Amino acid sequence: MDDRGSKKWSAMMLPEHIKMLKEVQREYYLEEKPALDEQQLEEINFKLTLAQKDHLLVDVKYYISGEFKHIKGHVDTIDYTNRYIRIDNNKLEPTNIIEVLITSGT
Fold first, then answer.
1. Which residues pair with 64 in a beta bridge?
2. Quick one: how far is CA 67 from the chain centroid?
3. What are 87-95's contacts with CB under 8 Å, separation 24+?
């Protein structure tokens, strides 16, 4: 027997119910942002500053909207006053950065 799970019941549901179920499922899979200690924040800051100064390639792991994402590139701008870091035309908030790895390559 082929069980289609929730697909077979969605035809009998109201659109509002389907929307609500999708939202509940999305929230279920959200990940929590880890808390970083002072040493980890200093290490991130050091690596970003070094990468900007020496034009090194970085792999940045960041947290946004309940998900972890990665971006690779070169650090163009570090602006803590206006609260952003620009990596190859992508703006990141410093508070969203979880990890910075300096990678090989130019």
1. 67
2. 5
3. 87/58, 87/60, 92/60, 92/62
Strand 90-92: give its sheet, edge to edge: 90-92, 84-87, 67-79, 57-64, 97-102
Distance CA 106, CA 96 (A): 25
Per-residue pLDDT of the chain (106 residues; tens, 9 = 90+): 455 555 555 566 778 877 888 777 777 777 788 899 999 999 999 999 999 999 999 999 999 888 899 999 999 999 988 999 999 989 999 999 999 999 876 5
The encoded tokens of residue 64 equal 């946004």
Tokens 């929590």 identify what position? 32
As a whole number of angstroms, the distance between CA 105 and CA 56 comes to: 8
Please state whether the predicted TM-score (pTM) of the whole model is above 0.90. Answer: no
Contact of 71 with 60, CB cutoff 8 Å = yes
